[in-house]
TrEMBL record:
Organism: Streptomyces paludis
SUPFAM superfamilies cross-referenced by the UniProt entry: FAD/NAD(P)-binding domain
Protein name: FAD-binding domain-containing protein
Domain of life: Bacteria
Amino acid sequence: MWTIHLPRWSTGLVAFVGDAAHAPSFLSGQGSSLALVGAYVPSHAGRAGRSARTGLAAHSAAFAAYEGRIREFVRQNQALATSGGTALLPRIAEELALRNNAR
Ligand SMILES: Cc1cc2nc3c(=O)[nH]c(=O)nc-3n(C[C@H](O)[C@H](O)[C@H](O)COP(=O)(O)OP(=O)(O)OC[C@H]3O[C@@H](n4cnc5c(N)ncnc54)[C@H](O)[C@@H]3O)c2cc1C
């Protein structure tokens, strides 16, 4: 539902983070949080892997670690878009009434 889903977030020396990699929906929120986590994790993974590897190998290892660590977190946050959407965008009269009567 209006979310970005890429099969992978990096290639070679280039990696996507934030909305470019995995924009959530406004129905899920969390876009800023995911962008911050997505910016922090690969930079941290890069520092951790620098001593053992260099160049493309270091980047590949860091980007694989980045994706391995947060892809499930991203999936869970994007899934929020389909669990609470009727409160924001009611589709039928019953959903509208449910939202309007919610406390
Ligand atoms: C109306 C609206 C409300 C939102 N409300 C919330 C909310 O309440 N909570 C929440 O968590 N998220 C919210 N979001 C989502 C959140 O804003 C984004 O998920 C988050 O900003 C993504 O961060 P980002 O760094 O990936 O991308 P962006 O914040 O979009 O940053 C990308 C930057 O790259 C720049 N840029 C683009 N192309 C180029 C180029 N060629 N060269 C140089 N620079 C370039 C852009 O100008 C921009 O500054 C909202 C989004 C919108 C549109």
